[in-house]
Fold DNA starvation/stationary phase protection protein.
Amino acid sequence: MAVAIKKASSSNANVAPHWHAHAKEIQKYGSVVEDIPHPLSAKIRADMVAQLNQLLADSITLRDMYKKHHWQVSGPTFYQLHLLFDKHFDEQVEMVDTIAERVQLLGGVTIAMGGDVAEVTRLQRPPRGREEVPVQISRLLEAHKIIIQSCLDISDLADKAGDQGTNDLVISDILRPNELQSWFIGQHLVEMPLILEK
């Protein structure tokens, strides 16, 4: 069975991409959509979005630090830490996405671009160059400490505001994995001889 293909006329079809588009933002950063089918008030949602965006900026920074250290780790524990840092990076990718989706669900706008994240994160920026392993791990532990405390603070605020969705998210999906990652990397700084003397 033959299929007829209609030739597009150059007068009524333009197949070139429209790539110089400019328009106004459809929603400003820091705002929330007022009228959405959600039981929480716009004020509560805006407060939670602000808290979650700070957590998101810090989590994006931690995620990227894990990838940096994955690439730049060296020394006798290279192989183990190279794999561990990459595993933690992948887990942080999931956490970042989970936080961002909650921000959007609450009617907010997520912080997303690296430059914007760098302006608001509370985490210490590592140097561009390579560092010794104990320094890499110490910086990661400090970052986890800030994020864990942020989760506890947001949980308290969300509980008082009646935002059980955010409360559950920061405890179950962000706090617990960060605690576990912190424990895993922290054990690399414990001074323990390879052979214990009797």
Remarks:
- The mean pLDDT is 92.
- Residues 35 and 174 are 28 Å apart (CA to CA).
- The first helix runs from residue 42 to 72.
